[in-house]
Model the fold of this input.
Amino acid sequence: MFSFFTKPRAVTALINDVVITVRPKETLLQAALREGIDFPHSCRVGGCATCKCQLVEGKVKELTQAGYILSDDELDRGFILACQSVPSTNVRIKVDTSHIEAHRKVSGRVVGQERLTHDIVHLRIQLDESLPYKAGQFAQLSVQDLPGVARSFSFATRVQPNSQVSFFVRKVPDGVFTSHVHAQSLVSSRVSVEGPGGNFWLRPASAPLLLIAGGSGLAPILALLQEALHEGVKRPATLIFGARTQADLYALEDIGEISRRWPEAFTFLPILSQEPEPSSWTGRLGLVTDLIPERLRPGCHAYLCGPPAMIDAVTALLLQHGVDRAHIHADRFTTQHDVSAAA
Done:
């Protein structure tokens, strides 16, 4: 008697120069880690792009839409997310592992927990030992009293001499981790910080800077600016910060200090999209994209961090106005809630 069903079979994956076996229904990342390959990864749910790699040959079934976090250029070049890709044939993969050596897990304790807005909390953590990272990168954060749960957040400051790190934690609808951070006092709690991850950092150049942040996406932008000041970078800079209302603006003193110390022209433009009327607000109203045409400088390099929809809209506008794609650097902050909604 013949079966009309074909039993799933294992396939092979050539990852850089290493051949591994991928079991049925196993993702590339799961197979790589099981086989002992030090494959770059962080969130494992398709929300951070740390595991992005190039599919050179073969086919995969994607569990979520990679276009939610990968750029059009990356998609055109065959990039996929290893944590969301199940090979359906033998595949050949290229992945950049050059930065993995610095990735490690460090323990620490919470020494500060400050509410910045109704949905953003500033956590300060004293690490037991230093954790090198580039300003703009992120790490996975877990707390001792919430075992088995870890989430990715961008460092909100440059590397500090006292091994202290900061994160801005935005409350996510139905988010287990972020709801815990917002509901509980975590001061003195033990935590783990694993990283760094991501490739969002300031590239050496002399071109004017256009920095655009939305919501908690201000964290890596602040870290990047602090590092630039420390390194003596001398480039004109414009920072556009998109928020919903005045109550959603934060870190204004930090931005003011950066502006005062910046060695070249520095312009800060907050813009509100949902400010209620009547209002005392005398600044700009609208979306960050409304300010870009009037603030673009010839040859500028752009650094963007915020919700995927904002990043996509800003990127499209910058390309339309002639900004080279190679000079647009973006960090989409996504959550498991965002990924599930886009799937």
Q: What stands out?
A: The longest strand covers residues 104-115. The first helix runs from residue 28 to 34. Residues 337-343 have pLDDT under 50 and may be disordered. The CA atoms of residues 139 and 196 lie 5 Å apart.
